[in-house]
Amino acid sequence: MSRTHPGFARFVALFSLIIAAETIFSLPYHVARFFRPTLLLALDLNNTQLGLVQSAYGVVAMLAYFPGGPLADLFPARKLLTASLVSTAAGGVYFAQLPSFDGLWLLFAFWGLTTILLFWAALIRATREWGDPERQGQAYGLLDAGRGLMAAVMASIAVGLFALLFPDNAETLSEQARMEAIRGVILFYTGVTFLAALLTWFFVKEPEGRSQPQVRKGVSIDQVRHVFAMRVVWIQALIVVCAYVGYKGIDYYSLFSVDIYGLSEVEAARLSAATAWVRPFAALAAGLLGDRIRPSRATSLCFVLLGSAYLLPLLADFGSPALPLFFLNVAVSSAAAFGLRGIYFALLEEGAIPAVATGTTVGIVSVVGYSPDVFFGVLAGWIIDGYPGWSGYQFFSLVVVGFSALGLVASMFFTRAASQPRRGDASTPPEFHTRHA
User: Fold this and answer.
1) How many other CB atoms sit within 10 Å of the CB of residue 31?
2) Exposure of 369 by Cβ count < 10 A (0-12 exposed, 13-18 middle, 19+ buried)?
3) What burial letters (b/e) apply to 291-306, b meaning 16+ CB within 10 Å?
4) 332-365 b/e with 16+ CB inside 10 Å = b?
5) Does residue 128 contact residue 352 with C-beta atoms inside 8 Å?
6) What φ, ψ does residue 287 adopt, rounded to 5°?
7) Within a 13 Å sphere around the CA of 200, how many CA atoms are in the beta-carbon half?
8) Range of lowest pLDDT (3-17, 104-118, 255-269, 337-351)
9) What is the per-residue pLDDT across 35-85, written as a single tens digit (0 to 9) for each?
10) Helices 358-369 & 231-249, crossing angle to 10 degrees?
């Protein structure tokens, strides 16, 4: 993955990272995002119960983010990524049995460990090393655009498989048929995850300039302490929190389309899959824009767009005749959320985070930034179950609008903080003055 690799090797390395980065989260996220109404019925769960299951994932993930950071600075990405993918796919085999609530709770907690501890910080570090220092927006934009394209392709195939297994006539639908349809989707995502493990094992390499002794050396306590003291790290973490709330909001569009607009389960799955096709364009555009105007300014614009989209249900009288307005809301909010995901880790370079501490910084940012995995599913489930129909949709939108406003303020503060000189002070560890390995 070194920048001195031949062009084809660099392409294959990035391609492998993209496949791995999206498939690792397909089992814990995609099935519920694209097939939520059917999954709830097949598992005999309500929204609050599914939120609790997803919170089990979030709690373990939060505990795994920080130790995963130093591990990423310590060991080769190839080994970490492959082990993570294999263990996650193994969980998919169990998921296909459609376990009880207790079994699901344990499974999602297991996935919180397998998808984060060995994977997340290693992925971000590998991507930063792949990109040029002055084009970090492009590097992360390409990563998330590629992930979006991969997610869209997988979702389209999964929806096609789902429609094939699902009876054409809803009146003849049996519980067994519904269970077989969702089981087929789960097994599809499991197989793709196993395939991604093979790609990372054979094609993801360490940078040519990074020797094994350097990898084993890792970071010192002084380095970790210095990262904790950097104000931009905590502002970036807040930006990620707000962006991630907007991203998780997309998970509920399939449910709203069924409950409020009367779409069928297959039509709802198709709508959710269509949002995935917005992602590659939005992520890449945000990355390129971030390189031109600074990543933090690009996140500010995305938060304005995200908040405006979620304001629409609060200001407009949505009804079944207003289905095109709902589709517009889905498209705009998805573009903003995916744009944020494509750019918020480019803030590492804008904030002058030392390259040697990338994994550690990602661990700190992710512990805070992905905390919505713990609380948002339960909060959204409580709102939707407690206020069914249109009022629940409005309360849900109000929550996302609030986080969008907070994200806008945090982005503006980041722009100011990143503009202030912070390098070369006496408290900075000497090895932090090396920009890139």
Assistant:
1) 20
2) buried
3) beebbbbbbbbbbbbb
4) bbbbbbbbbbbbbbbbbbbbebbbbbbbbbbbbb
5) no
6) -65, -45
7) 29
8) 3-17
9) 888 899 899 988 888 888 988 998 898 888 878 877 877 888 888 999 999
10) 50
User: What whole-number distance in Å separates Cα of residue 150 and Cα of residue 282?
Assistant: 14
**Pair 51, 188: CB distance under 8 Å:** no
Output the CA angle 22-28-31, nearest 5 degrees.
85
pLDDT for 122 beyond 50: yes
- Angle formed by the axes of helices 136-165 and 7-23, nearest 10°: 50
φ, ψ (nearest 5 deg) of residue 301:
-65, -40
pTM: 0.71
Q: In angstroms, how far is CA 131 from the centroid of its own chain?
A: 20
Instruction: Give, in order, the Cα–Cα distances in Å from 160 to each of 34, 36, 183, 267.
Output: 12, 16, 14, 11
Question: Tokens in use for 149?
Answer: 């394209």
pLDDT of residue 437: 35
Q: How does pLDDT run across 136-166, given as a tens digit for each residue?
A: 666 776 777 788 788 888 988 998 888 888 7
Helix and strand totals (H; E) in the chain? 21, 0
- Please name the residue that has the structure tokens 């492959």: 82
Amino acid at position 237, single letter: A
Q: What is the DSSP letter of 30?
A: I
